[in-house]
Amino acid sequence: MIQGKISRISGPVVRARGMEGIKIRDLVQVGDLGLLGEVIEVKGEEISIQVYEETDGLTVGEPVKSDGRPFLAQLGPGLLGMTYDGIQRPLEILRDLTGNFIARGATGDPLAKNKKWHFIPTVKVGDSVSYGDIIGWVQESPTIKHYVMIPESVSGVIAQIKEGDYTIEEAVGLLKDGVPLKMVQSWPIRRPRPAQRKVPTSLPLVSGQRIFDVFFPVPKGGNAIIPGPFGSGKTVMQQSLAKWSDADIVVYIGCGERGNEMTEVLTEFPHLEDPRTGAPLMNRTILVANTSNMPVAARETSIYTGITLAEYYRDMGYDVALFADSTSRWAEALREISGRLGEMPGEEGYPPYLASRVAEFYERSGRVICMGRGTPEGVKPSDSREGSVTVIGAVSPPGGDFSEPVTQNSLRIAGAFWGLDARLAYSRHFPAINWLTSYSLYLDALRDWYVSELSEEFLTMRTELMEILQKEDEMNKIVQLVGKESLSDPDKLLLDVARTVRDDFLRQSAFHEIEAYCPPKKAFYMMKAITTFYAQCQSLLGKMPYSDVLKLPGWEKISKMRYFPNDNFEVQCEAALKELAQEGVVQSA
Ligand SMILES: Nc1ncnc2c1ncn2[C@@H]1O[C@H](COP(=O)(O)OP(=O)(O)O)[C@@H](O)[C@H]1O
Ligand SMILES: [Mg+2]
C-alpha cells in the first residue's frame, strides 16, 4: 500500500506528495472519504490525480492511498441489463444504498457477488487452455449465453471442471498447477483488449433506418459519427439505432448530456422489446451514464469503461454496437482536466493529444478473429471465432460548426459520416441527415451482402435515387433564378420525384409504431416503386399535360408504402408495384 498526503486541490484535479512508487494511471483513494481517482501525472515528488467525484470539502493534508494498480473493469456474467457510472459503479444498486443521489466515496460491486449461475463446461479434464479459450458458458439473459474465457495471464492443463451452480468468484475448475478458474476477470480500461487480428468487415449493421441501410451504411465492426447542433436529433438517432440495430449486444454511453436525456433512456429502455426476439431489450444492453451534473473526471473515463465492456462481449464472438452520446462532452472533460494540469493548450483550448485520443477510441472498433479457441456453440474447441465492435459516436459541435477540433478529428477516422442539419430539423424533416454531405466509405465492403440478400438492382436503384437528389440540388439553384414555371416537363418531374424521395423515403419517424423500423427488403420495395413510377411518368411526358401527370394515383400510393405493416409488407408491396407499373399503360391507352 502506497500512502501520501494531499498537497493541493484544483477542482477535479488533486495533487499529492509522498506517493513513492506510484505510476501513471494507478487507482487511488483520496481523502478521509476515500474518493476514487486516477494518477494522471507524476512529476518529481508530486503527483496529479483526476478525482472521479466532487472534491468540495477536501483539505490539504488528508491521506491519499493506492495499492499501485490501475482502475480495472470487472468482467463476468451479470453485466447485461446493468446501468453503471463512468467507473463501473452500479447506479441502481447505489441508489438503493445511498438514496437518490450517489453519496461520495460510495462503492458497489459491479457484478452481483452472491448470485449463482449455472455453469456448463465445454472443455474437459486434460485439455490445455490459454488466453481467450472458451471453457464453458452460463445463460446470462434469456437470449444471451455468456461464454467464460481464460484470462490473459493464465494457461495450463485442466485438472478439474464441473457443471454446477457457482457465484462469479467460486472456482468452476482448476488447472494442474492449482490455479482456480473463475467466471469473473478484470481489465485495465485504457488498454484495448487484444485480438488475433482484425478482419475485413462485410456485413452491415442493419438498423431499420432507410437513410443508413440504403444510403450510408455502417458495417458490423465499422464506425460512424453523427455530428449535429443541439436539437437536430443525435440522441433520438442513437437511441433508435440502439433499439433496432441487429447487434447481439448494445453498450450505450450517455456521456455528459443533460440528466433528463439520460433519464429518458433509463426509464424507456427497460420497457422496450427486441423486435426480433420479443424479449426485453435490456437483456442485451448495458448502460453507462455520466450526465452533465456528474463529476467531469468520471465522464472522461466512461468512454473507456464502455468500450472495454464492448470488447469483452466481442471476444465471446458477439457483434456489439457501442453508442457514445456525446463524444464532445467527453472531449470537454479532457480539456478541463488538461487545463487544471496547466498543460499547454492546443486548438480551442483542447490538449494537443485530442487527435490521438479520438483516434485511439475509434480504433477499438473492428471485426476481429478473437483470442483463443472455442466457438460460441462450444462444439469444436479448435475453431476460432469472430466478433465485432461497431462504434457510433455523436458529436455536438458548439453552434453546429463542423470545423471545430472534435468534429474534425473524428471525421479523419470515421468510416461513415452522418451529418445532421439544423435546417432539416427545423423543417421537421427527420432523421435530419443531410443526404448531400453525408457519406459512407463502406459501400464496396458491403456490396456482396446487398447483392446476395437483396439484389444487384438494389445498388443501381440506390445510385439512381442519389442522382435524383443531386440533380435536384443543382436544379434548385436554377429555379431560384428563373422560377419553376420556366422549367421543362422532364425537369419538373425530376423535382417532384426528388420530393417523393425526400418526403416518402428518407423521412422516417422514430416515434411511429410501424415506421420506426423498416426492414431492408421493404426499403427495397419502396425504391423499386419510386424508380418504376418515375419511368412510367417519363414515358407519359409529351402524351399528356404535366398537370395530369401530377394527378396520377401513383404519387399517393408510394407515400403510403412506409405504413404497410412490417409482418406482411411483401404482399402489399408486390400489389402496389403491379399497380404502379400499369399507370403508364392505362393512362396512355
Ligand atoms: N428520427 C426522428 N423522428 C421524429 N422526431 C425526431 C427524430 N429525431 C429527432 N426528432 C425530434 O427532434 C427533437 C430533438 O432531438 P434530439 O435527439 O434530442 O436532439 P440532439 O440530441 O441532437 O440535441 C426530438 O425531441 C424529436 O422531437
Ligand atoms: Mg442529445
What is the element layout, followed by pairings?
Elements lengths: L1 E9 L2 E5 L9 E4 L4 E9 L2 E6 L11 E4 L5 E4 L7 E2 L6 H8 L18 E5 L6 E2 L4 E8 L2 E6 L6 E6 L2 E3 L6 E3 L4 E2 L3 E4 L8 E3 L10 H6 L7 E5 L6 H11 L4 E7 L3 H10 L16 E6 L5 H20 L3 E7 L1 H14 L13 H9 L3 E4 L16 E10 L9 H7 L4 E2 L4 H5 L12 E2 L2 H11 L2 H27 L6 H18 L13 H21 L5 H4 L4 H7 L8 H20 L1
Parallel strand pairs: 8-21, 19-24, 19-25, 20-21, 20-22, 22-24
Antiparallel strand pairs: 1-2, 1-6, 2-5, 3-4, 3-6, 4-5, 7-17, 9-11, 9-14, 10-13, 11-12, 13-15, 15-16, 18-23, 23-24, 25-26
Helix pairs in contact: 5-6, 7-8, 10-11, 11-12, 11-13, 12-13, 12-15, 13-16
The structure holds adenosine-5'-diphosphate (ADP) and magnesium ion.
The site of magnesium ion has 4 residues, from helix 3.
Polypeptide structure, described:
The chain is of the alpha+beta class and 589 residues long. The chain has 16 helices and 26 strands. Strands 8, 18, 19, 20, 21, 22, 23, 24, 25 and 26 form a ten-stranded mixed sheet that branches. Helix 11 (456-482) packs across helix 13 (520-540) and helix 12 packs antiparallel against helix 13 (520-540). Bound molecules: adenosine-5'-diphosphate and magnesium ion (MG). The site of adenosine-5'-diphosphate has 13 residues, from helix 3. Adenosine-5'-diphosphate is lined by residues 228, 230-236, 430-431, 509-511.
Keywords:
single chain; 589 residues; alpha+beta; Elongation Factor Tu (Ef-tu), domain 3; Rossmann fold; OB fold (Dihydrolipoamide Acetyltransferase, E2P); 4 domains; 10-stranded mixed sheet; 6-stranded antiparallel barrel; 26 strands; 22% strand; globular; binds adenosine-5'-diphosphate; binds magnesium ion
